[in-house]
């Protein structure tokens, strides 16, 4: 192989260098040489129509929470043989309160407070209040009391009711975190007595258990109270004990009442009206008499019924 003359080699180099500079100046590079920045600067191609019509895929929903994780699971309410609610003494919720006594309360007054799961009127009779009570406590001579309640479950509510012979007040609804309360009762009357079956009555006629004695308020007095904005008093009932005794506690004073009874086998009874005073103990023993049965048919002017 013959060697190129030195002059020809120098000429070739002089031609190739300007050519290379020219190519680099035009900025052309092979596609694989383009960097990430060059690729990012190019606008994305529009999505096909079929792709735009396709429903949007939502992100996957979180896994379902089990019932044990999503709901508060509580043990069932424990009750004793009589149906009364029971609970661990360590979980007792203590409620403290005071009854502010009005003037003139008789010395034989006896006050109790009851925890119940429903609102009760001041005229609730003893047997029913004893049956539904969650807890009860006596009120001290100074009007103080402390009542132990079962722990409240979610959504439960409790009312504290006051029961006395003469004093009466609306039940107080407890807020979930409430631990103190007070009563400002009114001074009413106490009505008690006994049903007396006359000698010679049959065993069926002498059966008194299951009878209800009604205390009826004068309807005109109720209308007057509505018009004047005074205390509205309602009629009420109380069961008669097997021995014929009855009592009506915390009766609103200074209203006209009568007592009524409708036995199944004896004559109906209605007393004369009476008006008890605040702090008065009204004793009424009621004699039950034999009656007669009247039967017949109501007919019109033509004698047809």
How is the topology of this model organized?
Blueprint: H1 6-25, H2 36-41, H3 49-53, H4 67-70, E1 78-79, E2 85-86, E3 93-99, E4 112-116, H5 126-132, E5 135-138, E6 144-149, E7 158-163, E8 167-168, E9 172-174, E10 180-183, E11 186-187, E12 189-197, H6 203-206, E13 212-217, H7 219-228, E14 236-239, E15 245-251, E16 257-261, E17 269-270, E18 281-283, E19 286-288
Could you characterize what this model shows?
- The protein has 305 residues and is α+β, with helices and mostly antiparallel strands.
- The chain is built from seven helices and 19 strands.
- It has a four-stranded antiparallel beta sheet, with helices on one face.
- The chain is elongated and about 165 Å long.
- Residues 28-43 and 49-75 have low confidence and may be disordered.
Strand order of the largest sheet: 5-4-7-9
Beta-strand proportion: 25-35%
Backbone CA Rg: 46 Å
Q: What is the end-to-end distance?
A: 153 Å
Which bin fits the share of residues in helices? 10-25%
What structural category arises from helix and sheet content?
A: alpha+beta
Q: Strand tally, please?
A: 19
Q: On the 0-100 scale, what is the average pLDDT?
A: 78
Overall morphology = elongated
Following the backbone from N to C, one meets helices and strands in this order, namely: HHHHEEEEHEEEEEEEEHEHEEEEEE
Major sheet? 4 strands, antiparallel
């Amino acid at each position: 192989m013959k060697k190129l003359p030195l002059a020809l080699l120098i000429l070739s180099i002089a031609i190739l260098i300007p050519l290379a500079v020219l190519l680099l100046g035009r900025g052309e590079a092979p596609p694989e040489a383009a960097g990430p920045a060059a690729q990012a600067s190019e606008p994305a191609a529009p999505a096909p129509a079929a792709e735009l019509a396709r429903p949007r895929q939502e992100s996957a929903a979180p896994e379902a929470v089990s019932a044990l994780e999503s709901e508060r699971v509580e043990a069932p309410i424990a009750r004793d043989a009589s149906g009364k609610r029971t609970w661990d003494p360590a979980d007792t919720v203590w409620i403290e309160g005071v009854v502010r006594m009005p003037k003139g309360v008789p010395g034989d007054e006896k006050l109790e407070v009851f925890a119940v799961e429903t609102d009760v009127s001041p005229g609730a009779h003893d047997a029913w209040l004893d049956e539904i009570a969650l807890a009860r406590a006596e009120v001290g001579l100074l009007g103080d009391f402390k009542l132990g309640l079962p722990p409240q479950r979610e959504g439960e509510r409790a009312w504290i009711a006051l029961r006395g012979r003469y004093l009466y007040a609306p039940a107080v609804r407890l807020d979930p975190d409430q631990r103190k309360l007070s009563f400002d009762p009114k001074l009413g009357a106490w009505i008690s007595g006994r049903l007396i079956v006359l000698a010679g009555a049959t065993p069926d006629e002498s059966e008194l258990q299951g009878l209800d004695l009604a205390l009826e308020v004068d309807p005109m007095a109720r209308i007057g109270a509505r018009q004047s904005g005074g205390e509205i008093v309602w009629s009420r009932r109380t069961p008669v004990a097997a021995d014929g005794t009855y009592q009506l506690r915390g009766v609103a004073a200074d209203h006209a009442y009568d007592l009524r009874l409708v036995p199944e086998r004896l004559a109906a009874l209605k007393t004369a009206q009476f008006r008890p005073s605040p702090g008065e103990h009204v004793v009424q023993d009621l004699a039950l008499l034999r009656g007669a049965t009247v039967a017949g048919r109501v007919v019109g002017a033509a004698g047809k019924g």
